[in-house]
Structures are given as C-alpha cells and as structure tokens.
Amino acid sequence: MFLPALRTLAIAALALFAQSVLLPADVQAGRFQPVSGVTTFEGEFTVSGQRRRVLYVRPVASPVGLAPAIVVLHYAGGDPEEMANLIEIGQLVRDTGVWAVLPESRGRNWAFDPVADRNGPDDVGLITRVIDNLVAAYPIDARRVYLTGFSSGGFMTQRYVCERSERIAAAAYVSSTLLDSLRKVCKPSLPTPIIGMHGNRDPKVSYTKKSGLSSAPDTALFFATLNRCLTPPLRSKLPNIANDSTTVLLDSYDRCAAPQPVRFYTIDGGGHTWPGNHYQLGFAGRTTQDIDATRVIWDFVGNYSR
Fold it and tell me: What are phi and psi of 142, to 5 degrees?
C-alpha cells in the first residue's frame, strides 16, 4: 500500500499521462488524409467483451513476398486517423511497402500501467490479437512486426515490450518514460532492439525523474541493461540543419547481447511533440525539424527480425 502522500503524488503523475495532445484542425479531421499509392480499411476485434476498432494503412501495389508491418499506438485523446496524419505514416507506407496498423484505445487512452490499470481494458491482449490477425489474414512477415507509440502510446509500447517482447522484432517510443510500477515487473521473454526519443523541455511528460517514473535517459538505460549492453553509450551530436532552436543528441548503446542495440535521442529544446512533423504546438513545446521521427524509427526497427 502507498502511504497517503506518496499515493497522491503517484496519482498526480499518472493523471499527467492522460492529458490530451490537442492538434491542428487538419490533423483532427477525423479521417485519414489520402496519400497516392496507399489505401486504408478498418477491422474490429472484441477483447474481454469490448469492441475495438483498427485502422489498416497499406500500399496499393501487392508486395513481392511477405511485407513487414508496424503497429502504431496513438497519444491520449487521439485516434488512429489523427495519429496517422500527425506522423505521416501514409508516406512511409508509400515509400517502403510496410503495412501500418493503428488500433484504437478504449476511452482514448491506453491501459499502460500494470498496477493502476489491472482492472482496465486488456490492451496487451488487443495488440496481440491485432498481430495474430495480421500474420494469419494478410501477406505479413511474422518475423518483421514492429511496435511504436507516442505519449500514452509510448507508455503502452514499453509495457508491451516488458510483457510480450517475443511478438515483435523491435520497438520505439516517443515522449514517454518508465513507470516505477512497470520497472518492478518488467521481465521480457527476449531482448528487443528499442529506440526512444524525448524533448528535454517536455511540459507534459518530464525529461527528468519525477515521483512514479524514471527520467528519460534512465528509461533508455533500463532497456539497455535488459539487453545486456556492456558499455556506456556513445554520444553524438546530430547536424543542426533546421536552425529552429533545437538540437539532437544521440546516445547509442551498441555493445549489447544478441546484438539488440538501444538508441536514445534527446531533443535539446524540444517539447511534447513528434520530431519532424510540420506543426509547432506552442503549448506542447518546440518540434524539432532536425530529424524525422517516423523515418528514423523505421530506419532502425526495419533492420531487425525475430
């Protein structure tokens, strides 16, 4: 049991994650913004008696052989279409041939806390059902299924890595840090290549340690330790190409077992945003244009298979 004061702090920290990320009207259009060479369709699953919607974004052209797939988890307050538009997933699908699959959370937030959400929606089960259906019903390579998420979706990504890592080949999270409650129970069945990104001026999910959660750098270190990375990360400063009052630092954990490397990007001056999108959301902080998170994530995760 928490002491009353500590419980109050923990509840306040968790409430922060449920705050919505409000976006411009063209992103909030409620429909997928069309991309040439890409088509969409919807599916539906019933998990623990609850109906859940899934958006599929796929290339029009049939792949030669089996295609990879990336499961994308939206932010709190968002939905699959808004997330797809924000991160321009259609353009990635068009250019690479990957399928993108975007499930919808219950109540527009994910059940990412194994303690606080233990009686909530079975989102781990939902993601597993989505992956099972992907490889059974469509031309998807079961060995090349990946997972990523933003904000609340990033927290859910971390939970899935901890509980069902054998189902994905690599993962990525943006603007999310490690819950103490997850740290205590995180026992992945397999090490997983993973990439994280976080702005050090994030006003919603703190870059530094807060009650109930790790700092962003310590979150990356935790996953590097799980992957048995043997040395401290190599730090590099990426080119400052945008002159937008942000810079990007990359910590690379490369000497890891298997190998299963970990990458962590600090957006110096960045906020609670998806790097590389075209919106400067003042209330959420700056969006760096020095990297495109969607492409950086794909360039990393797409190298791996189970």
Answer: -60, -20
